[in-house]
Automatic annotation (TrEMBL):
Cofactors named for this entry: Zn(2+)
Domain Aminopeptidase N-like N-terminal: 63-186
GO molecular-function term, one example from the UniProt record: alanyl aminopeptidase activity
Residue span, Peptidase M1 alanyl aminopeptidase Ig-like fold domain: 452-565
EC number: 3.4.11.14
Descriptive protein name: Puromycin-sensitive aminopeptidase
Keywords on record: Aminopeptidase, Hydrolase, Metal-binding, Metalloprotease, Protease, Zinc
GO BP terms, alphabetized: proteolysis
Species annotation: Erythranthe guttata (Yellow monkey flower)
Span of domain Peptidase M1 alanyl aminopeptidase C-terminal: 569-891
Length: 891
């Protein structure tokens, strides 16, 4: 198995000018005809032409119209090599046979619910035809599709439809032409029985764009929100970045078998139906929000990814980091900025930080890979609802933090001016940002090359006599595989000083590096300033601070780091109550909760009685009862950090202790604040009509978190209440929340309500996936048996990634059952990984990551997990995907 290195990147010897494809689709096999105009990069080039190709049967190979003799080429399992291609421009024609019907990997051309569809990113095009499957080969494509008309009435590819018609034998054809150059990973084809919801969007320059969302006919009513999201995204990109759509047609197709969330193929986005279909009765508020974000994300790729693409896969963050940042901003502008920021930062902490601590730790731009698919990181690896590359997005966000919105926009404009139609690198983006603003970014590029989460320590001091306030920073970047020693990073730290009256102290100068720097804006003092922390140790002193403030550090989470400050609990409670930066208000509560949980974990491990700190209880109560606060913010602020987050900051992760402590705190809060939670439920019930807007969603979020707390009490009155909420719910958000509240306690009611839910929704596979996931993630001891039973339930199908993510991925959500001391959880996951790897290596490798941090646990668990890793490693014919993760985990 070959490891590919960034340092080995070489420009290709040959480029492709045009690519004409013809697909004849049929029930047994598909024939792909390809005609490529090839030209050498340098005149007189005599290098061999190496084409990628996997699982392809070569039928014919012609150069300049002549069939090649066997001696003139070499064909093995991965490549087709022309040893001596003609000099200058030439045509290369291949005919290959492929078998989409038997393709369970869901990359290349495959079938989903009877329809043909493709997934080519990262390296799936080589499963369709012989090609230089790399993103720096950009060409213009045409695509002719021929298929049975009754089975596949709709034939789609990229660009514009230029011809269509009938062919004998009940067949028909369509020819698509894409006027823009693109890399092959953006190629797409769909053929099937689909209907579309149509709408139009008039761009700001007056272009009328036809928008079509394709699904099986019965799902069409569920595409209204996706269409709303698409139009909102198109408008937002024009308003915020001046970016207009560039064709007259934009297609979205929803398929039910898809490894990730969606794919941004030029003008033919293909989506996992989970992130397209929604109705109030079947989708939750979270689903609605995800759809908005993912539709936006894929649409935004049209400029950041498609018009300007990546030179090679190491530059993935160039398009993903930037596009995730853009979709985050879009969602913020459409809803609550603070709540979105909290959700995104929680994502970074839940998915990115753990990865940074494990064997798969890698910089934003990795130095090497075995299988590129493994570098699509973040939540996307276990669920279609997120696109990943969260840290890449944080890096892009830091440019904006440093430059301000107008400076960032100038940088974006220059980036497109310089690179439209090109395949470029992260440095090109960096240079555009720097040059457009004449900015000094010091060693900012380290964010791309150095792995690990920087830890920034802050020591604070107030000098009452000098009326100055000092922040002393020291940073450490922990060692990661292959990078034992690290350089200090350039960390933008947004800081405000909150005075004793709870108001921000206006700041006008800071002493740093022997100089007094002015930090006013348009001549006026500021409430927040961004400090440029660049050294291992460094001090900033604010002058003219007349009263001792409490510092609000890393406002808005201005850099993706771990902050370790010397703030006391009193300081944190003060910030929780007063900080004008809402993100840091939430963060203060989280730091307090983390400290409390860690200290209770230690009590639990010493077998001491657990007692809830009354001040924490009061803090939660005051937030819960503060009617001036945004309700969704309150819901977030009273949510405890996840079990994984606490385990990550322990020397030896102890899932049992963390689970016991989190459960204890939830129950204590529910007991002590029972009346407040009951009132919250009663006062925030939904009106009849479901609306996707912030006010309504916030009300539901608050009501449902209150219900979740109450549900932790094993108590008849609460069970009655939750059952009432379940029965009277008029939308899935409320119905599922009450089901989840009831799911916490084993027994007859739980069993009955779960059965009732399935009965009601068995016809709707997306709702059934929620049902699978809820049960699988249950912390009820020994739940593994139920999960094993569900493997044989008619609702489960191991070939469908969404079902695997729901059931098997869902099981990993229960830390206690996954890490059960008898090894039953690990054994189950080991078996599943091997089964999955034979069918779908991408899905298998996303599941095997549960083992990657096995060294973080106690010895018993280490041995059990290691045994599973070794068992997987010993398997014959392991995929590159799983091999890479398992071998790095065992190293
Ligand atoms: N750019 C898309 C990535 C993607 C993907 C990557 C590897 C294997 C399968 C995949 N499906 C989609 C998704 C995105 O950025 O939204
Ligand atoms: Zn993306």
């Amino acid at each position: 198995l070959k490891e590919i290195f960034l340092k080995d990147y070489k420009q290709p010897d040959y480029f492709f000018d045009t690519v004409d494809l013809k697909f004849t689709l049929s029930e047994e096999k598909t024939i792909v005809f390809s005609k490529i105009v090839v030209y050498p990069r340098l005149e007189g080039c005599s290098a061999p032409l190496v084409l990628d190709g996997i699982d392809l049967k070569l039928i014919s190979l012609k150069v300049n119209g002549d069939e090649l003799k066997v001696d003139d080429f070499h064909h093995d399992a991965r490549h087709l090599t022309l040893s001596a291609p003609p000099s200058g421009k030439f045509t290369l024609e291949t005919v290959t046979e492929i078998s989409p019907q038997t393709n369970t990997s869901l990359e290349g051309l495959y079938k989903s619910s009877g329809n043909f569809c493709t997934q080519c990113e990262a390296q799936g095009f080589r499963k369709i035809t012989f090609f230089q499957d790399r993103p720096d080969i950009m060409a213009k494509y045409t695509c002719r599709i021929e298929a049975d008309k009754s089975l596949y009435p709709v034939l789609l590819s990229n660009g514009n439809l230029i011809e269509q018609g009938e062919i004998e034998g009940g067949k028909h054809f369509a020819v698509w032409e894409d006027p823009f150059v693109k890399p092959c990973y953006l190629f797409a084809l769909v053929a099937g029985k689909l209907e579309s919801r149509d709408d139009t969007f008039i761009t700001r320059s007056g272009r009328k764009v036809l928008l079509r969302i394709w699904t099986p006919v019965e799902d069409l009513p569920k595409t209204a929100h996706a269409m709303y999201s698409l139009k909102a995204a198109m408008k937002w990109d024009e308003d915020v970045f001046g970016l207009e759509y560039d064709l007259d047609l934009f297609n979205i197709v929803a398929v039910s078998d898809f490894n990730m969330g969606a794919m941004e193929n030029k003008s033919l986005n293909i989506f996992n139906s989970e992130v397209v279909l929604a109705s109030p009765e079947t989708a939750t508020d979270a689903d609605y929000a995800t759809i908005l974000g993912v539709i936006g994300h894929e649409y935004f790729h049209n400029w950041t990814g498609n018009r300007v693409t990546c030179r090679d896969w190491f530059q993935l963050s160039l398009k993903e980091g930037l596009t995730v940042f853009r979709d985050q901003e879009f969602s913020s502008d459409m809803g609550s900025r603070t709540v979105k920021r909290i959700a995104d930062v929680t994502g970074v902490r839940t998915y990115q930080f753990p990865e940074d601590m494990g064997p798969m730790a890698h910089p934003v731009r990795p130095h090497s890979y075995i299988k590129m698919d493994n570098f699509y990181t973040g939540k996307c690896r276990i669920s279609p609802s997120c696109i990943g590359h969260d840290i890449g997005a944080e890096v892009v966000r830091m440019y904006k933090t440093l430059l301000g919105a107008p400076g960032f926009r100038k940088g974006m404009d220059l980036y497109f001016k310089r690179h439209d139609g090109q395949a470029v690198t992260c440095e090109d983006f960096y240079s555009a940002m720097r040059d457009a603003n004449d900015a000094d970014f010091f060693n900012f590029l380290l964010w791309y090359s150095q792995a690990g989460t920087p830890c920034l320590k802050v020591v604070t001091a107030y000098d009452a006599q000098a009326k100055s306030y000092s922040l002393k920073f020291s940073q450490v970047v922990p060692p990661t595989p292959g990078q034992p020693v690290k350089e200090p990073m350039f960390i933008p730290v947004a800081v405000g000083l909150v005075g004793p009256n709870g108001k921000d102290i206006p700041l006008s100068s800071v002493y740093h590096d022997g100089k007094l720097e002015t930090i006013t804006k348009d001549g006026q003092p500021v409430n927040t300033t961004v400090l440029r922390v660049t050294k291992k140790e460094e001090e900033f002193v604010f002058s003219d601070i007349r009263e001792c403030p409490v510092p609000s550090i890393l406002r808005g989470y201005s850099a993706p780091i771990r902050l370790d400050s010397d703030l006391t609990d009193a300081d944190l409670y003060f910030l929780l109550a007063n900080d004008s930066d809402e993100f840091n208000r939430w963060e203060a509560g989280q730091v307090l909760a983390r400290k409390l949980m860690l200290s209770l974990v230690s009590d639990f491990q010493k077998n001491e009685k657990l007692v809830l700190n009354p001040q924490f209880l009061l803090g939660v109560k005051s937030i819960l009862c503060d009617s001036s606060l945004d309700k969704e913010f309150v819901a977030k602020a009273i949510t405890l950090p996840g079990e994984g987050e606490i385990m990550d900051i322990m020397e030896i992760a102890d899932p049992d202790a963390v689970h016991a402590v989190r459960t204890f705190i939830r129950k204590q809060l529910a007991t002590e604040l029972r009346d407040e939670f009951l009132n919250t439920v009663k006062n925030n019930r939904s009106s009849e009509q479901y609306e996707f807007n912030h006010t309504n969603m916030a009300r539901r979020a608050l009501k449902n978190i209150a219900l979740a707390y109450l549900g932790s009490l094993e108590d008849e009155e609460i069970t009655e209440l939750a059952l009432h909420e379940y029965k009277t719910a008029t939308n899935m958000t409320d119905q599922f929340a009450s089901l989840a509240a009831l799911d916490q306690n084993p027994g007859k009611t739980r069993d009955e309500v779960l059965a009732d839910f399935y009965d009601k929704w068995q016809h709707d596979f997306l709702v059934v996936n929620k049902w699978l996931s809820l049960q699988a993630s249950s912390n009820i001891p020994g739940n593994i048996e139920n999960v094993r039973k569900l493997l044989n339930h008619p609702a489960f199908d191991i070939r469908n990634p969404n079902k695997v993510y729901s059931l098997i991925g869902g099981f990993c959500g229960s830390r206690v059952n996954l890490h059960a001391k008898d090894g039953s959880g690990y054994k189950f996951m080991g078996e599943m990984v091997l089964q999955l790897d034979k069918l779908n290596p991408q899905v298998a490798s996303s599941m095997v990551t549960v083992f990657s941090r096995w060294k973080r646990y106690d010895e018993t668990r280490q041995n059990l997990a290691k045994a599973q890793l070794e068992m997987i490693m010993a398997e014959n014919g392991l995929s590159e995907n799983v091999f890479e993760i398992v071998s790095k985990s065992l190293a």
